């Protein structure tokens, strides 16, 4: 990935970062890089994620999924980091395999998918690092029941990715299901470039080696300076802008194929940096569509956000036909790709003209190699930003309260959190 932070400079935007401040920040980046390198060398928890291009074994993944590669459809059951990485890869790339990600427990939505899918030709990919996540286990129990009701042997078409122990591991062992292990020391949201994100890609016959090669090439760029490393330039600049008031980061890819990537980025950024009353709130938007819904706010609302524009510089194109309407002649001479590119540059320039900070991120095209680089680059940017914020990037303790309350409400144990739910303050306004 290439990063352009020109429109984040104080000479262009407010909030903005001066060159002097960037130079000073670069000293902190050098120190942070040393800690990151040390963490990678020691395979420390979290930092180990940045070793995945070397650690992940694509042959083992291919061998394990091989019996499933003829499936016409794949249903992935997982949530958060156990879904978003895989979804980002398969939603970005075309495949003949229909893919569904059951990452919610909305009963109508789950039922609609299970009723619609050709279960006799559908493979199941169940993913949970902890092996205990209620939504994932519930959806798996519901899905396998649906397969049984359809007279389809789910044990013949299920693959599991989970840890050494836990209920999901027990189920996999009990039914002798093919399984892969989540890598040690890699938090879910940083595991796209492991079996967690790559089983679905393998079933869809995507090029796992190219994904890892793209990530490895990005890893080569990790040096001690934001002026040499695109990932660190992104992480340091967004951190510096947050310190100056840009507490939100709108991720705006200009490619429909990258819409799920914004969801993946939102978990990465929010769950990694959102702690100790710190962190930058990720917003998800899509170019050009949200120019017609969000741009007014981005350009004329509070000066509390940075906009990240992402685009592939090479895409397939489609010409716009000639028209008999004079006023539209300018379109007839162009293509959809020309229009997309013009809108990208015009919208970026419109924010700069209004003194609103924005950053450009470019990849050559949407393919496995470039996606590997983008995912790895943003993970490294997040790790660097976490070092600068001084937070524990790799834990997410704040999510546990609601999990305990949920479990208690369902009779899954005694939890004070569940009691607290009943003590809700009410001020209802009813129709
Ligand atoms: O992979 P698991 O353990 O099922 O967890 C799923 C997701 O839930 C979280 O723990 C948050 O609740 C995320 O960090 C994680 O990616």
UniProtKB/TrEMBL annotation:
Chief subcellular location: cytoplasm
MF GO annotations: glucose-6-phosphate isomerase activity
Pathway annotation: Carbohydrate degradation; glycolysis; D-glyceraldehyde 3-phosphate and glycerone phosphate from D-glucose: step 2/4; Carbohydrate biosynthesis; gluconeogenesis
Single GO BP term: glycolytic process
Keywords from the UniProt entry: Cytoplasm, Gluconeogenesis, Glycolysis, Isomerase
UniProt-annotated catalytic positions: 271, 292, 403
EC number(s) from the headed UniProt entry: 5.3.1.9
Cellular compartment(s): Cytoplasm
PROSITE patterns the record matches: P_GLUCOSE_ISOMERASE_1, P_GLUCOSE_ISOMERASE_3
One annotated Gene Ontology cellular component of this protein: cytoplasm
Broad enzyme group: isomerase
InterPro entries the UniProt entry points to: G6P_Isomerase (IPR001672), Phosphoglucose_isomerase_CS (IPR018189), SIS_dom_sf (IPR046348), SIS_PGI_1 (IPR035476)
Catalytic activity entry: alpha-D-glucose 6-phosphate = beta-D-fructose 6-phosphate
Main function: Catalyzes the reversible isomerization of glucose-6-phosphate to fructose-6-phosphate.
HAMAP family cross-referenced by the UniProt entry: G6P_isomerase
Family: Belongs to the GPI family.
Protein name (database record): Probable glucose-6-phosphate isomerase
Source organism: Halosolutus amylolyticus
Gene: pgi
């Amino acid at each position: 990935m290439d990063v352009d932070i020109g429109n984040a400079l104080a000479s262009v935007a407010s909030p903005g970062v001066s060159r002097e401040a960037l130079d000073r920040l670069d000293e902190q980046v050098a120190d942070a890089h040393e800690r990151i390198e040390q963490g990678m060398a020691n395979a420390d928890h979290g930092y180990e994620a940045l070793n995945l291009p070397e650690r992940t074994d694509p042959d083992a993944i291919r061998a394990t999924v091989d019996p499933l590669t003829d499936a016409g459809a794949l249903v992935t059951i997982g949530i958060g980091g156990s879904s978003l990485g895989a979804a980002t890869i398969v939603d970005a790339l075309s495949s003949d395999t229909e893919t569904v990600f059951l990452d919610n427990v909305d009963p109508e939505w789950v039922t609609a998918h299970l009723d619609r899918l050709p279960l006799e030709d559908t493979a199941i990919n169940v993913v949970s690092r902890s092996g205990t996540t209620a939504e994932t286990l519930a959806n798996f129990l519901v899905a396998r029941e649906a397969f049984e009701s359809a007279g389809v042997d789910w044990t013949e078409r299920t693959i599991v990715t989970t840890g050494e122990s836990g209920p999901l591991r027990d189920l996999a062992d009990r039914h002798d299901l093919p399984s892969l292990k989540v890598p040690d020391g890699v938090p879910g949201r940083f595991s796209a470039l492991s079996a967690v994100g790559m089983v679905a890609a393998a079933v869809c016959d995507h090029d796992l080696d190219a994904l890892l090669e793209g990530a490895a090439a990005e890893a080569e760029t990790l040096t001690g300076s934001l002026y040499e490393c695109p990932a660190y330039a992104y992480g340091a600049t967004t951190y510096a802008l947050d310190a100056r008031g840009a507490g939100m980061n709108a991720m705006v890819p200009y490619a429909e194929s990258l819409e799920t990537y914004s969801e993946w980025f939102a978990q990465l950024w929010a769950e990694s940096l959102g702690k100790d009353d710190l962190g930058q709130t990720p917003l998800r938007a899509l170019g050009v569509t949200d120019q017609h819904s969000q741009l007014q706010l981005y350009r004329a609302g509070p000066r509390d956000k940075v906009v990240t524009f992402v685009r592939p510089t090479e895409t397939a194109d489609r010409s716009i036909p000639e028209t008999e309407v004079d006023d539209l002649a300018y379109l007839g001479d162009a293509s959809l790709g020309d229009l997309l590119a013009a809108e990208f540059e015009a919208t970026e320039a419109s924010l700069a003209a209004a003194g609103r900070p924005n950053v450009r991120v470019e990849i050559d095209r949407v393919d496995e190699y470039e996606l590997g680089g983008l995912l790895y680059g943003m993970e490294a940017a997040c790790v660097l930003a976490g070092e600068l914020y001084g937070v524990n990037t790799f834990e997410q303790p704040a999510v546990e309260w609601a999990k305990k309350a949920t479990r208690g409400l369902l009779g899954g144990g005694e939890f004070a959190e569940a009691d607290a739910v009943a003590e809700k303050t009410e001020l209802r306004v009813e129709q």
